[in-house]
Amino acid sequence: MTAPAVKILVVDDEAPIRRLLRVGLTNEGYSILEAADAREASASLKEDKPDVIILDLGLPDIQGHDLLANWRASGLELPILVLSSRTDEAGIVKALELGADDYVTKPFGVAELAARIRVALRHRLQQQGERPVFQVGDLSVDLVKRLVKVAGQEVSLSPKEYDILRLMVQHAGKVLTHQHILRQVWAGSADVQYLRVYVRQLRQKIEKSPDQPQYILTETGVGYRLRVAD
Fold first, then answer.
1. Which pLDDT does position 127 carry in this prediction?
2. Number of H helices and number of E strands within the chain?
3. Which end of the chain, N or C, is more open, meaning fewer C-beta atoms within 10 Å of its C-beta?
4. What is the full DSSP assignment across 114-177?
């Protein structure tokens, strides 16, 4: 017997977008549910029990941000990926701050979207407890021993550098906004430029080419994402 396909609820009022997602993600092995507005989405959540939600921020009956906030306030823990225009950085940041697991910009590639879905699903499963050891490429982070290695060689980090990396490991694959990192590492008492300095220092220690990072990826105008193994 094979496991049932992961069910994805696509919430978007544009029929062509829903059709594109239905065809593309079905080919990736997912089962697709569709909703054109918040009312249909809420009904599908109750009746169909999806595993993942893809949410467009521009819905006809309620703002996507408000719907996202309502879902998270009600205790909904499903992975939620938001759809956004490429230039809407403020909307992306707001969605992530409200509890979105990731965002996908329009236009988008189905293969990339499927990869983001897999990461979001893994991240939700991993939230039950920290992984003692994180590994991607030549980078290894042991959260128990507080040991960071690159290509087998131990790397010495400052306390703040380690705190940033540890936070990223805890949420590997997920976009962390600048403000979220500042709140967690500095209790919100530092500014974004301060964070950029520490990230630059961290990259110099763990990246082969700091100017072309492979591990700590920049989400322009939004924050950072720690790459996970493919």
1. 59
2. 8, 12
3. N
4. HHHHHHHHHHHHHTTS--SEEEETTEEEETTTTEEEETTEE----HHHHHHHHHHHHTTTSEEE
